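The instructor's notes for this session suggest beginning with a concrete chain rather than abstract definitions. Hand out the sequence below and ask the class to guess, before any prediction is shown, which regions might be ordered.
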Amino acid sequence: MTEGTIVRSTVGVTVLGAGEVTADLLRLALAHAPRLVAADGGAAAALGLGTMPEAVIGDLDSLDAATLAALPAGRVHRIADQETTDFDKCLAAIAAPLVVAVGFTGARLDHEMAAFSSLIAHAGRAVVLLGPCDVAFAAPPELDLSVPAGTRVSLFPMGEVSGRSEGLRWPIDGLRLAPGGRIGTSNLAVDGRVRLRLSAPRMLVFLPRDCLAAAISALAARPAGPAAARGG
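After discussion, reveal the predicted structure:
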């Protein structure tokens, strides 16, 4: 393994956090990303749902003694760095073509916002955040997305970004989008195909949960850059 890599995989990896998660949601994630890694306190959620993560990664400040005792010692990886979140630590330690993150929404709002920030920080990779209602991911500079007509396609800029779109009811052409300014939530796909061409990797895309497979396919087809090719 290269330095810093804890899990190397040729298939998708599910990363489980300590937020709201159900057995159905975890099964959905594992259907697309069959290897399981827990982010710190997500280990307790994994054991509570009857699954054993192959690795637990984080600063371990949320890992209780009972959960720690139930985990094989070789699977627990403490990273003491306090400048990054446990989600960031997992992403930095996983080399895989896809990461599906579940259990990072629905609990503390600051943790949820931190997860969205992590998507942007790792925008060169195929990372999808799966929640009870939605999926979210950072759009690459070129994105082709196949979803049914009428599907909600919400765009939220995490920094200043402009671009062009095809297949949206309200095109973004000529608009300058930014937090605190113009955003692009509650847009709609009009013909089953959405194309985005963006000036910078600062845009989050939100789709209904049943579009998880479509999101994964779109990210898999993105033009490969250095981060995408490395897988981490």
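Then share the key points. The CA atoms of residues 161 and 177 lie 5 Å apart. Confidence is low (pLDDT under 50) at residues 226-232.
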